[in-house]
Amino acid sequence: MDEEYDVIVLGTGLKECILSGLLSVDGLKVLHMDRNDYYGGDSTSLNLNQLWKRFRGEDKPPAHLGASRDYNVDMVPKFMMANGTLVRTLIHTDVTKYLSFKAVDGSFVFSKGKIHKVPATDMEALKSPLMGLFEKRRARNFFVYVQNYNEADPVTHQGLDLTRITTRELISKHGLSDDTVDFIGHALALHRDDRYLNEPALDTVKRMKLYAESLARFQGGSPYIYPLYGLGELPQAFARLSAVYGGTYMLNKPECKVEFDMEGKVCGVTSEGETAKCKKVVCDPSYLPNKVRKIGKVARAIAIMSHPIPNTNDSHSVQIILPQKQLGRKSDMYVFCCSYTHNVAPKGKFIAFVSAEAESDNPQSELRPGIDLLGQVDELFFDMYDRYEPVNEPALDNCFVSTSYDATTHFETTVTDVLSMYTAITGKTVDLSVDLSAASAAEEY
C-alpha cells in the first residue's frame, strides 16, 4: 500500500469500475479499493441466499424456488439501449469480450389502466391501440419529422430551430393529444418527469432517434439489451479491463479513510494502518459523506414469479413505464422483468422489479400500481435507499464523487454521470464515435 498512485478509486459500483477502466486505459496508475469483499457495491447482483439474508435476515430460502446459485438478482435493475452511450463505452474499451448480451423482448407503456406496446416508428404508430384514427395520423407525421431530422441538414428542420423552441411548442405544432405526448415523452424519450416540455426540443428529438435506432439495430421487440447473468457482470468486466492495464485491486479493506493535506486537497487513503498516496480520489457517496447532500429516495419492490407479466405478449424480459400523469405522481414508475432466458433465475422463474423515486415513506402502498401489473408473485421484497449527489468543488479538493443511482430502468443517466466525471478528472472527453457492429461478436441474439 505504501506507494503513490495517480488515482485511488473507492467502491466497486458500476460507475466507479467504468472510471477505473477508462483511467487505466489512459495510462494512469490506479488503485481500486472496496470495503466489501465483492464487486458491484450498490449495483451488485445477489444469489438467492444473499437476497434472503439481506431482506429476511437469514440465508435459507424455501427449496421450491430452486438453487441459490441460479439467481442473479440486480440491486439496481437497468437495461441498456442497444445504440446507447453505455454500449458505445463497452465497445470503446473492448469490455465486450468479457460479456454476452441478449435482446430484451418488449417495451411497454401504461396508459388509462392498460399496458400497451410502445410505438416507436411511423408504421407502429398507425397500428397502435393507444390512439384513435386521426391521432394516429398526427403521431405518424410527428414520427416522420423526427426520423428525417438531421441536425446538420437545415432542409430537414422545416424552418424550426429546435435549440430555441420548447418540446411543448414542437408538439403543439403537430396537434398531438396529452396522452400521446405522455408516451412520447416518457416511454420513447425516457424523460423522468414533465420538466422536459419547457426545455429545448432538440434533446427530446435526439432521445427519440436513439430509441428508434436502438430498436432497429437488432429488429427485436424493444430497444434494450441486457447481459447474461445480470448486471453484476458489468463492474467485474471493467475491473478486469483495469487490471489488464495495470490497475491494482484490493477488496475487503475496512475503513478506507480519505486523507487531506493542509490545503484541503486529497493526498491519500488509509486502511488497516497503511496509507496509499494519491493525487485524486474517485468514490461513491458513502466514502465521503461530508461532501454530498441527500436529493431523494428510491423505493423498489423485488418479486420472484413463475410466469411472465400478464398482457406483455408472454415476454420473458420487458420494461413497462408508468408515466407520472397516469398515476397522479411527480415522477414516473418503472417495471423491469427478466428471467431464466437471461440466466438470472432457474428455468420457469421470473424476476420483476417495480421502482420509483419515493414520494412517501411507504413503499408498499406507493409501488402498488406497478405491483398490481405483475399478477401472482411467489415472493415479494421491499427496499428503499437514499440518493446523494456531490456538493464539493473537485478543482479545490481533487475528490470526484458519483451521484447515487436513480429509479430509472435504463442506463443513459448513469453513463452521462460517468462521462462527465471522466472529463472533470482528465480534462478529456471519451471518443464514442465507434462502429457498433464491432460488438456483434460478443452478443448473443
From TrEMBL:
Source species of the chain: Urochloa decumbens
Protein name per UniProt: Guanosine nucleotide diphosphate dissociation inhibitor
Family: Belongs to the Rab GDI family.
Record Pfam families: GDI
Source organism phylogeny: Eukaryota, Viridiplantae, Streptophyta, Embryophyta, Tracheophyta
Gene3D superfamilies, sorted: FAD/NAD(P)-binding domain, Guanine Nucleotide Dissociation Inhibitor, domain 1, Guanine Nucleotide Dissociation Inhibitor, domain 2
InterPro entries: FAD/NAD-bd_sf, GDP_dissociation_inhibitor, RabGDI
